[in-house]
Amino acid sequence: MRAPRTESAAMTQRWRWLALVALLVAEAMNLLDATIVQVAAPTIHAVLGGSTADVQWLGAAYTLPFALLLITGGRLGDIAGRKRVFLIGVAGFGIASVGCALAPDVSVLIGWRAVQGAAAAFVIPQTFGLVKAMFEGRELAKALGSIGPVMGLAAICGPALGALVVDADLLGWSWRAAFLINIPLVVAVLCCAPVLLENAAADRPRLDLAGTVLAVAGFALVVYPLIEGREWGWPRWTWAIVAAGLATLVGFGVAQRIAAARGRATLVEVSLFADRRFPAALVASTLFFAVMNGLMLVIVLHLQLGLGRDVLSAGLALLPWTAGSAVASWVAGTWLVPRYGARVMQVGLAVLAFGLLATVTAYAHAPAGGWATLSALGVCGVGLGLFTVPFFTTALARVAPHETGSAAGLLNAVQQLGATFGTAALGTVVLRGLDGGDPATATAAVQQAFWIALALTAATAVAAAVMAGPEHPIVGTRRPGRRFATEFSGPRGTVRNHNI
Protein backbone atom coordinates (compact mmCIF):
# COMPACT_ATOMS: atom_id res chain seq x y z
CA MET A 1 0.00 0.00 0.00
CA ARG A 2 1.57 3.28 -1.10
CA ALA A 3 1.57 5.93 1.58
CA PRO A 4 -0.36 9.20 1.07
CA ARG A 5 1.57 12.27 -0.04
CA THR A 6 2.51 13.74 3.32
CA GLU A 7 5.43 16.06 4.04
CA SER A 8 7.45 12.99 5.04
CA ALA A 9 6.56 11.25 1.78
CA ALA A 10 7.57 14.33 -0.21
CA MET A 11 10.97 14.40 1.53
CA THR A 12 11.40 10.69 0.81
CA GLN A 13 10.64 11.33 -2.85
CA ARG A 14 13.41 13.94 -3.00
CA TRP A 15 15.92 11.74 -1.17
CA ARG A 16 14.79 8.33 -2.42
CA TRP A 17 18.19 7.41 -3.89
CA LEU A 18 19.86 8.12 -0.55
CA ALA A 19 17.21 5.93 1.07
CA LEU A 20 18.07 3.19 -1.44
CA VAL A 21 21.74 3.44 -0.47
CA ALA A 22 20.75 2.96 3.19
CA LEU A 23 18.74 -0.15 2.30
CA LEU A 24 21.60 -1.56 0.23
CA VAL A 25 24.08 -0.94 3.05
CA ALA A 26 21.81 -2.86 5.43
CA GLU A 27 21.57 -5.75 2.95
CA ALA A 28 25.33 -5.81 2.39
CA MET A 29 26.03 -5.59 6.14
CA ASN A 30 24.38 -8.97 6.66
CA LEU A 31 26.50 -10.69 3.99
CA LEU A 32 29.68 -8.91 5.07
CA ASP A 33 29.22 -10.03 8.65
CA ALA A 34 28.60 -13.66 7.69
CA THR A 35 31.68 -13.91 5.46
CA ILE A 36 33.94 -11.93 7.80
CA VAL A 37 33.12 -14.15 10.77
CA GLN A 38 33.65 -17.28 8.68
CA VAL A 39 37.25 -16.22 8.03
CA ALA A 40 37.82 -15.00 11.60
CA ALA A 41 36.32 -18.09 13.30
CA PRO A 42 39.59 -20.08 13.68
CA THR A 43 41.30 -17.03 15.21
CA ILE A 44 38.38 -16.58 17.62
CA HIS A 45 38.72 -20.24 18.60
CA ALA A 46 42.46 -19.84 19.17
CA VAL A 47 41.93 -16.83 21.48
CA LEU A 48 38.79 -17.84 23.39
CA GLY A 49 39.32 -21.59 23.42
CA GLY A 50 36.43 -24.04 23.68
CA SER A 51 35.67 -27.09 21.57
CA THR A 52 36.28 -27.14 17.84
CA ALA A 53 32.51 -27.49 17.38
CA ASP A 54 32.25 -23.89 18.59
CA VAL A 55 33.85 -22.84 15.29
CA GLN A 56 30.80 -24.24 13.50
CA TRP A 57 28.41 -22.64 15.99
CA LEU A 58 29.83 -19.19 15.25
CA GLY A 59 28.21 -19.51 11.83
CA ALA A 60 25.24 -21.77 12.60
CA ALA A 61 24.09 -19.70 15.59
CA TYR A 62 23.63 -16.82 13.15
CA THR A 63 22.13 -18.56 10.12
CA LEU A 64 19.64 -20.77 12.01
CA PRO A 65 17.58 -18.00 13.71
CA PHE A 66 18.02 -15.85 10.61
CA ALA A 67 16.45 -18.57 8.46
CA LEU A 68 13.64 -19.51 10.82
CA LEU A 69 12.55 -15.95 11.62
CA LEU A 70 12.73 -14.52 8.08
CA ILE A 71 9.09 -15.17 7.24
CA THR A 72 7.91 -14.01 10.67
CA GLY A 73 10.03 -10.88 10.25
CA GLY A 74 8.35 -10.21 6.92
CA ARG A 75 4.90 -10.63 8.46
CA LEU A 76 5.81 -8.24 11.29
CA GLY A 77 6.75 -5.64 8.67
CA ASP A 78 3.37 -6.09 7.00
CA ILE A 79 1.61 -5.62 10.35
CA ALA A 80 3.63 -2.97 12.21
CA GLY A 81 5.15 -1.11 9.25
CA ARG A 82 8.22 -2.07 7.25
CA LYS A 83 10.23 1.04 8.12
CA ARG A 84 9.63 0.59 11.85
CA VAL A 85 10.58 -3.10 11.85
CA PHE A 86 13.57 -2.41 9.58
CA LEU A 87 14.99 0.21 11.94
CA ILE A 88 14.39 -1.99 15.00
CA GLY A 89 16.26 -4.79 13.25
CA VAL A 90 19.18 -2.54 12.27
CA ALA A 91 19.48 -1.17 15.81
CA GLY A 92 19.30 -4.69 17.24
CA PHE A 93 21.99 -5.84 14.82
CA GLY A 94 24.25 -3.02 15.98
CA ILE A 95 23.69 -3.79 19.67
CA ALA A 96 24.38 -7.48 19.05
CA SER A 97 27.57 -6.60 17.15
CA VAL A 98 28.85 -4.67 20.17
CA GLY A 99 27.88 -7.63 22.36
CA CYS A 100 29.90 -9.95 20.10
CA ALA A 101 32.94 -7.65 20.21
CA LEU A 102 32.86 -7.50 24.02
CA ALA A 103 32.07 -11.18 24.62
CA PRO A 104 34.29 -12.58 27.41
CA ASP A 105 33.99 -16.20 26.29
CA VAL A 106 32.80 -18.26 23.35
CA SER A 107 29.41 -19.15 24.89
CA VAL A 108 28.46 -15.49 25.26
CA LEU A 109 29.72 -14.80 21.74
CA ILE A 110 27.56 -17.58 20.29
CA GLY A 111 24.56 -16.18 22.15
CA TRP A 112 25.10 -12.72 20.68
CA ARG A 113 25.54 -14.28 17.23
CA ALA A 114 22.05 -15.76 17.60
CA VAL A 115 20.72 -12.29 18.46
CA GLN A 116 22.46 -10.93 15.35
CA GLY A 117 20.75 -13.56 13.20
CA ALA A 118 17.34 -12.78 14.68
CA ALA A 119 17.88 -9.04 14.09
CA ALA A 120 18.91 -9.69 10.47
CA ALA A 121 15.62 -11.57 10.01
CA PHE A 122 13.82 -8.32 10.84
CA VAL A 123 15.93 -6.29 8.38
CA ILE A 124 16.20 -8.29 5.16
CA PRO A 125 12.48 -8.98 4.44
CA GLN A 126 11.63 -5.27 4.59
CA THR A 127 13.95 -3.96 1.89
CA PHE A 128 11.96 -5.18 -1.12
CA GLY A 129 8.72 -3.62 0.14
CA LEU A 130 10.43 -0.35 1.06
CA VAL A 131 12.04 -0.10 -2.38
CA LYS A 132 8.67 -0.71 -4.07
CA ALA A 133 7.11 2.03 -1.91
CA MET A 134 9.66 4.62 -3.06
CA PHE A 135 10.12 3.81 -6.76
CA GLU A 136 7.93 3.16 -9.78
CA GLY A 137 8.35 2.06 -13.38
CA ARG A 138 11.86 2.18 -14.81
CA GLU A 139 13.27 3.61 -11.59
CA LEU A 140 11.92 0.59 -9.70
CA ALA A 141 13.63 -1.81 -12.10
CA LYS A 142 16.88 0.16 -11.78
CA ALA A 143 16.64 0.20 -7.98
CA LEU A 144 15.97 -3.53 -7.73
CA GLY A 145 18.70 -4.23 -10.27
CA SER A 146 21.26 -2.56 -8.01
CA ILE A 147 20.84 -5.18 -5.29
CA GLY A 148 22.69 -7.95 -7.14
CA PRO A 149 25.92 -6.02 -7.89
CA VAL A 150 26.07 -4.64 -4.35
CA MET A 151 25.69 -8.09 -2.83
CA GLY A 152 28.28 -9.45 -5.24
CA LEU A 153 30.72 -6.75 -4.15
CA ALA A 154 30.01 -7.56 -0.50
CA ALA A 155 30.65 -11.25 -1.16
CA ILE A 156 34.03 -10.43 -2.72
CA CYS A 157 35.09 -7.93 -0.06
CA GLY A 158 33.87 -9.83 3.02
CA PRO A 159 36.54 -12.55 3.36
CA ALA A 160 39.41 -10.24 2.38
CA LEU A 161 38.19 -7.41 4.64
CA GLY A 162 37.74 -9.76 7.58
CA ALA A 163 41.21 -11.20 7.07
CA LEU A 164 42.81 -7.75 6.81
CA VAL A 165 41.09 -6.43 9.94
CA VAL A 166 41.92 -9.47 12.08
CA ASP A 167 45.49 -9.67 10.77
CA ALA A 168 46.08 -5.95 11.38
CA ASP A 169 45.10 -6.41 15.06
CA LEU A 170 43.78 -2.84 15.22
CA LEU A 171 44.33 -1.33 18.68
CA GLY A 172 45.02 -4.84 19.94
CA TRP A 173 41.40 -5.86 19.32
CA SER A 174 42.28 -8.80 17.04
CA TRP A 175 39.06 -10.61 16.00
CA ARG A 176 36.86 -8.24 18.02
CA ALA A 177 37.43 -5.50 15.45
CA ALA A 178 35.71 -7.70 12.85
CA PHE A 179 32.38 -7.17 14.64
CA LEU A 180 32.96 -3.45 15.17
CA ILE A 181 33.04 -2.97 11.37
CA ASN A 182 29.24 -3.13 11.58
CA ILE A 183 28.89 -0.14 13.90
CA PRO A 184 29.61 2.73 11.44
CA LEU A 185 27.35 0.99 8.91
CA VAL A 186 24.53 0.73 11.46
CA VAL A 187 24.94 4.39 12.45
CA ALA A 188 24.88 5.48 8.79
CA VAL A 189 21.68 3.53 8.10
CA LEU A 190 19.94 4.89 11.22
CA CYS A 191 20.92 8.45 10.26
CA CYS A 192 19.04 7.93 6.99
CA ALA A 193 15.84 6.97 8.83
CA PRO A 194 14.03 10.28 8.08
CA VAL A 195 14.23 9.69 4.32
CA LEU A 196 12.74 6.18 4.50
CA LEU A 197 9.03 5.97 3.73
CA GLU A 198 6.81 4.05 6.16
CA ASN A 199 4.95 1.28 4.40
CA ALA A 200 2.70 -1.58 5.49
CA ALA A 201 0.49 -4.15 3.80
CA ALA A 202 -3.04 -3.14 2.86
CA ASP A 203 -4.38 -6.47 4.14
CA ARG A 204 -2.33 -7.10 7.23
CA PRO A 205 -1.71 -10.81 7.88
CA ARG A 206 -1.77 -12.59 11.21
CA LEU A 207 1.26 -14.18 12.82
CA ASP A 208 1.55 -17.95 13.02
CA LEU A 209 3.36 -18.19 16.35
CA ALA A 210 2.66 -21.91 16.78
CA GLY A 211 4.11 -22.66 13.34
CA THR A 212 7.19 -20.56 14.08
CA VAL A 213 7.81 -22.40 17.37
CA LEU A 214 7.46 -25.81 15.69
CA ALA A 215 9.82 -24.86 12.85
CA VAL A 216 12.45 -23.43 15.22
CA ALA A 217 12.27 -26.46 17.52
CA GLY A 218 12.42 -28.97 14.65
CA PHE A 219 15.42 -27.49 12.88
CA ALA A 220 17.27 -26.81 16.14
CA LEU A 221 16.84 -30.46 17.18
CA VAL A 222 18.29 -31.59 13.85
CA VAL A 223 21.22 -29.15 13.68
CA TYR A 224 22.42 -29.36 17.31
CA PRO A 225 23.50 -33.04 17.29
CA LEU A 226 24.97 -32.70 13.78
CA ILE A 227 27.44 -30.15 15.13
CA GLU A 228 28.02 -31.57 18.62
CA GLY A 229 27.85 -35.28 17.73
CA ARG A 230 31.54 -35.53 16.81
CA GLU A 231 32.56 -34.16 20.22
CA TRP A 232 30.33 -36.70 22.00
CA GLY A 233 31.34 -39.69 19.88
CA TRP A 234 27.91 -40.01 18.24
CA PRO A 235 26.04 -41.83 21.05
CA ARG A 236 22.61 -43.24 20.25
CA TRP A 237 20.75 -40.41 21.91
CA THR A 238 22.18 -37.91 19.41
CA TRP A 239 20.40 -39.79 16.63
CA ALA A 240 17.27 -39.89 18.80
CA ILE A 241 17.40 -36.08 18.94
CA VAL A 242 17.72 -35.92 15.15
CA ALA A 243 14.72 -38.26 14.81
CA ALA A 244 12.73 -36.09 17.22
CA GLY A 245 13.61 -33.03 15.15
CA LEU A 246 12.49 -34.68 11.92
CA ALA A 247 9.24 -35.78 13.60
CA THR A 248 8.67 -32.20 14.77
CA LEU A 249 9.16 -30.92 11.22
CA VAL A 250 6.64 -33.47 9.93
CA GLY A 251 4.25 -32.24 12.60
CA PHE A 252 4.90 -28.68 11.44
CA GLY A 253 3.93 -29.60 7.88
CA VAL A 254 0.73 -31.34 9.00
CA ALA A 255 -0.18 -28.43 11.27
CA GLN A 256 0.31 -25.96 8.41
CA ARG A 257 -2.05 -27.88 6.13
CA ILE A 258 -4.70 -28.19 8.85
CA ALA A 259 -4.45 -24.47 9.67
CA ALA A 260 -4.78 -23.55 5.97
CA ALA A 261 -7.81 -25.82 5.58
CA ARG A 262 -9.49 -24.07 8.52
CA GLY A 263 -8.70 -20.60 7.23
CA ARG A 264 -6.17 -19.79 9.94
CA ALA A 265 -2.87 -17.95 9.57
CA THR A 266 0.02 -20.11 8.34
CA LEU A 267 3.75 -19.52 8.33
CA VAL A 268 4.00 -20.64 4.69
CA GLU A 269 1.60 -20.42 1.74
CA VAL A 270 0.39 -24.02 1.47
CA SER A 271 -0.73 -23.57 -2.16
CA LEU A 272 2.95 -23.33 -3.16
CA PHE A 273 3.13 -27.09 -2.67
CA ALA A 274 0.36 -27.87 -5.16
CA ASP A 275 2.87 -29.37 -7.62
CA ARG A 276 6.40 -30.71 -7.36
CA ARG A 277 8.23 -27.78 -8.92
CA PHE A 278 8.37 -25.39 -5.98
CA PRO A 279 9.22 -28.09 -3.39
CA ALA A 280 11.97 -29.17 -5.80
CA ALA A 281 13.22 -25.57 -5.82
CA LEU A 282 13.39 -25.62 -2.01
CA VAL A 283 15.38 -28.87 -2.08
CA ALA A 284 17.74 -27.49 -4.73
CA SER A 285 18.28 -24.29 -2.74
CA THR A 286 19.01 -26.19 0.48
CA LEU A 287 21.53 -28.52 -1.18
CA PHE A 288 23.21 -25.81 -3.26
CA PHE A 289 23.80 -23.40 -0.39
CA ALA A 290 24.94 -26.27 1.83
CA VAL A 291 27.71 -26.83 -0.72
CA MET A 292 28.50 -23.14 -1.13
CA ASN A 293 28.72 -22.18 2.54
CA GLY A 294 30.00 -25.51 3.83
CA LEU A 295 32.99 -25.53 1.48
CA MET A 296 33.94 -21.95 2.33
CA LEU A 297 34.25 -23.04 5.97
CA VAL A 298 36.17 -26.17 4.94
CA ILE A 299 38.75 -24.10 3.04
CA VAL A 300 39.25 -21.69 5.94
CA LEU A 301 39.51 -24.45 8.58
CA HIS A 302 42.01 -26.44 6.54
CA LEU A 303 44.31 -23.50 5.90
CA GLN A 304 44.26 -22.09 9.44
CA LEU A 305 43.77 -25.09 11.75
CA GLY A 306 45.21 -27.81 9.51
CA LEU A 307 48.20 -26.10 7.89
CA GLY A 308 48.79 -23.29 10.37
CA ARG A 309 48.40 -20.48 7.82
CA ASP A 310 47.47 -17.02 9.08
CA VAL A 311 44.05 -15.45 8.71
CA LEU A 312 45.19 -13.19 5.86
CA SER A 313 46.24 -16.19 3.75
CA ALA A 314 42.88 -17.86 4.36
CA GLY A 315 40.93 -14.73 3.43
CA LEU A 316 42.87 -14.16 0.23
CA ALA A 317 42.51 -17.84 -0.73
CA LEU A 318 38.74 -17.29 -0.99
CA LEU A 319 39.09 -14.39 -3.43
CA PRO A 320 39.06 -16.54 -6.62
CA TRP A 321 35.93 -18.28 -5.31
CA THR A 322 34.00 -15.10 -4.49
CA ALA A 323 35.28 -13.10 -7.48
CA GLY A 324 34.44 -15.91 -9.90
CA SER A 325 30.94 -16.14 -8.45
CA ALA A 326 30.32 -12.38 -8.66
CA VAL A 327 31.56 -12.06 -12.26
CA ALA A 328 29.63 -15.14 -13.42
CA SER A 329 26.44 -13.86 -11.76
CA TRP A 330 26.75 -10.59 -13.66
CA VAL A 331 27.40 -12.36 -16.97
CA ALA A 332 24.49 -14.75 -16.39
CA GLY A 333 22.06 -11.99 -15.47
CA THR A 334 23.12 -9.66 -18.28
CA TRP A 335 23.53 -12.02 -21.23
CA LEU A 336 23.01 -15.72 -20.62
CA VAL A 337 19.71 -15.99 -18.75
CA PRO A 338 17.78 -13.60 -21.07
CA ARG A 339 18.90 -15.72 -24.03
CA TYR A 340 19.00 -19.30 -22.70
CA GLY A 341 16.76 -19.21 -19.62
CA ALA A 342 16.70 -22.08 -17.13
CA ARG A 343 19.23 -24.14 -19.12
CA VAL A 344 21.98 -21.97 -17.64
CA MET A 345 21.32 -23.64 -14.26
CA GLN A 346 22.54 -27.03 -15.45
CA VAL A 347 25.55 -25.42 -17.15
CA GLY A 348 26.43 -23.75 -13.87
CA LEU A 349 26.16 -27.03 -11.96
CA ALA A 350 28.32 -28.78 -14.57
CA VAL A 351 31.00 -26.09 -14.22
CA LEU A 352 30.75 -26.38 -10.42
CA ALA A 353 31.16 -30.17 -10.61
CA PHE A 354 34.22 -29.78 -12.84
CA GLY A 355 35.67 -27.25 -10.40
CA LEU A 356 35.09 -29.58 -7.45
CA LEU A 357 36.87 -32.43 -9.25
CA ALA A 358 39.72 -30.09 -10.18
CA THR A 359 40.02 -28.96 -6.56
CA VAL A 360 40.21 -32.56 -5.29
CA THR A 361 42.96 -33.23 -7.84
CA ALA A 362 44.80 -30.04 -6.90
CA TYR A 363 44.73 -30.93 -3.21
CA ALA A 364 46.24 -34.34 -4.08
CA HIS A 365 49.08 -33.08 -6.28
CA ALA A 366 49.71 -29.40 -5.45
CA PRO A 367 50.19 -27.33 -2.29
CA ALA A 368 47.06 -25.88 -0.69
CA GLY A 369 46.83 -22.20 -1.52
CA GLY A 370 48.94 -22.67 -4.66
CA TRP A 371 47.93 -21.54 -8.12
CA ALA A 372 46.43 -24.90 -9.07
CA THR A 373 44.14 -24.94 -6.04
CA LEU A 374 43.20 -21.27 -6.36
CA SER A 375 42.40 -21.70 -10.06
CA ALA A 376 40.19 -24.70 -9.30
CA LEU A 377 38.37 -22.70 -6.61
CA GLY A 378 37.86 -19.93 -9.16
CA VAL A 379 36.16 -22.43 -11.49
CA CYS A 380 33.91 -23.48 -8.59
CA GLY A 381 32.99 -19.83 -8.07
CA VAL A 382 32.06 -19.43 -11.74
CA GLY A 383 29.76 -22.45 -11.47
CA LEU A 384 28.12 -21.01 -8.36
CA GLY A 385 27.47 -17.68 -10.07
CA LEU A 386 26.09 -19.25 -13.25
CA PHE A 387 23.58 -21.27 -11.22
CA THR A 388 22.34 -18.64 -8.78
CA VAL A 389 20.74 -16.10 -11.16
CA PRO A 390 18.65 -18.51 -13.29
CA PHE A 391 17.73 -20.52 -10.21
CA PHE A 392 15.91 -17.69 -8.44
CA THR A 393 14.38 -16.48 -11.71
CA THR A 394 13.02 -19.94 -12.53
CA ALA A 395 11.88 -20.72 -8.99
CA LEU A 396 9.71 -17.59 -8.81
CA ALA A 397 8.56 -17.51 -12.44
CA ARG A 398 5.60 -19.85 -12.04
CA VAL A 399 4.18 -18.83 -8.67
CA ALA A 400 0.95 -16.84 -8.50
CA PRO A 401 1.20 -13.10 -7.70
CA HIS A 402 -0.25 -13.52 -4.21
CA GLU A 403 2.28 -16.30 -3.52
CA THR A 404 5.38 -14.32 -4.51
CA GLY A 405 6.15 -12.88 -1.08
CA SER A 406 5.80 -16.21 0.69
CA ALA A 407 7.79 -17.99 -2.05
CA ALA A 408 10.66 -15.48 -1.88
CA GLY A 409 10.68 -15.71 1.91
CA LEU A 410 10.81 -19.50 1.81
CA LEU A 411 13.64 -19.50 -0.72
CA ASN A 412 15.64 -17.09 1.43
CA ALA A 413 14.90 -19.16 4.54
CA VAL A 414 16.01 -22.49 3.06
CA GLN A 415 19.10 -20.74 1.67
CA GLN A 416 20.13 -19.97 5.25
CA LEU A 417 19.09 -23.43 6.42
CA GLY A 418 21.26 -24.93 3.69
CA ALA A 419 24.14 -22.79 4.92
CA THR A 420 23.53 -24.09 8.44
CA PHE A 421 23.45 -27.74 7.36
CA GLY A 422 26.51 -27.29 5.16
CA THR A 423 28.42 -25.74 8.04
CA ALA A 424 27.35 -28.59 10.32
CA ALA A 425 27.93 -31.52 7.96
CA LEU A 426 30.99 -30.52 5.91
CA GLY A 427 32.55 -28.72 8.87
CA THR A 428 32.26 -31.89 10.94
CA VAL A 429 33.97 -33.93 8.21
CA VAL A 430 37.01 -31.66 8.03
CA LEU A 431 37.27 -31.12 11.81
CA ARG A 432 37.38 -34.88 12.32
CA GLY A 433 40.41 -34.98 10.02
CA LEU A 434 42.06 -32.12 11.90
CA ASP A 435 41.86 -33.85 15.29
CA GLY A 436 45.06 -35.84 14.80
CA GLY A 437 47.20 -32.86 13.80
CA ASP A 438 48.57 -34.67 10.74
CA PRO A 439 48.59 -32.45 7.59
CA ALA A 440 48.09 -35.47 5.31
CA THR A 441 45.03 -36.58 7.28
CA ALA A 442 43.69 -33.03 7.20
CA THR A 443 44.09 -32.84 3.42
CA ALA A 444 42.35 -36.21 3.01
CA ALA A 445 39.44 -34.89 5.09
CA VAL A 446 39.18 -31.83 2.85
CA GLN A 447 39.09 -34.07 -0.22
CA GLN A 448 36.34 -36.13 1.41
CA ALA A 449 34.34 -32.96 2.05
CA PHE A 450 34.68 -31.99 -1.62
CA TRP A 451 33.53 -35.47 -2.72
CA ILE A 452 30.45 -35.10 -0.51
CA ALA A 453 29.88 -31.66 -2.03
CA LEU A 454 30.07 -33.23 -5.50
CA ALA A 455 27.35 -35.73 -4.53
CA LEU A 456 25.20 -32.89 -3.20
CA THR A 457 25.76 -31.00 -6.47
CA ALA A 458 24.50 -34.02 -8.43
CA ALA A 459 21.40 -34.13 -6.22
CA THR A 460 20.94 -30.39 -6.81
CA ALA A 461 20.97 -31.03 -10.57
CA VAL A 462 18.15 -33.58 -10.21
CA ALA A 463 16.06 -31.19 -8.09
CA ALA A 464 16.72 -28.33 -10.53
CA ALA A 465 15.57 -30.49 -13.46
CA VAL A 466 12.29 -31.23 -11.67
CA MET A 467 11.89 -27.54 -10.82
CA ALA A 468 12.32 -26.46 -14.45
CA GLY A 469 10.17 -29.26 -15.86
CA PRO A 470 6.42 -29.49 -16.56
CA GLU A 471 3.81 -29.21 -13.84
CA HIS A 472 3.26 -32.31 -11.68
CA PRO A 473 0.30 -31.77 -9.31
CA ILE A 474 0.61 -33.33 -5.87
CA VAL A 475 -2.50 -35.15 -4.70
CA GLY A 476 -4.25 -33.53 -1.76
CA THR A 477 -2.78 -30.04 -2.18
CA ARG A 478 -4.54 -26.82 -2.94
CA ARG A 479 -3.96 -24.48 -5.87
CA PRO A 480 -6.01 -21.28 -6.11
CA GLY A 481 -8.28 -21.06 -9.11
CA ARG A 482 -8.39 -24.82 -9.63
CA ARG A 483 -10.74 -27.55 -8.54
CA PHE A 484 -9.38 -29.31 -5.50
CA ALA A 485 -10.46 -31.47 -2.61
CA THR A 486 -8.34 -31.81 0.49
CA GLU A 487 -8.98 -33.84 3.56
CA PHE A 488 -7.21 -33.66 6.91
CA SER A 489 -7.73 -35.46 10.17
CA GLY A 490 -7.63 -33.11 13.11
CA PRO A 491 -8.56 -33.05 16.77
CA ARG A 492 -12.15 -32.15 15.90
CA GLY A 493 -12.58 -34.94 13.39
CA THR A 494 -12.13 -34.94 9.63
CA VAL A 495 -11.96 -31.55 7.92
CA ARG A 496 -12.82 -31.29 4.23
CA ASN A 497 -12.29 -28.32 1.95
CA HIS A 498 -13.81 -28.06 -1.51
CA ASN A 499 -13.23 -25.29 -4.02
CA ILE A 500 -15.17 -25.65 -7.23
TrEMBL record:
- The reply to whether Oxidoreductase figures as a keyword in the UniProt entry is no
Q: Does the keyword Repeat apply?
A: no
User: Which keywords belong to this entry?
Assistant: Membrane, Transmembrane, Transmembrane helix
Provide the membrane topology annotation.
Multi-pass membrane protein
Q: Cross-referenced Gene3D superfamilies, in alphabetical order?
A: MFS general substrate transporter like domains (1.20.1250.20), Multidrug resistance protein D (1.20.1720.10)
Where found in the cell? Cell membrane
The record's annotation in CDD domains points to: MFS_MMR_MDR_like
- The Major facilitator superfamily (MFS) profile domain covers 19-472
In its UniProt record, a GO molecular function of this protein is: transmembrane transporter activity
Q: Which GO terms describe its cellular component?
A: plasma membrane
User: What is the official name of this protein in its record?
Assistant: EmrB/QacA subfamily drug resistance transporter
Membrane spanning stretches: 55-73, 85-104, 110-131, 143-165, 177-197, 209-227, 239-259, 280-305, 311-337, 344-365, 371-397, 409-430, 450-469
Which Pfam families does this entry report, sorted A to Z?
MFS_1 (PF07690)
Q: Which domain of life is it from?
A: Bacteria
Family matches, as InterPro entries: MFS, MFS_dom, MFS_trans_sf
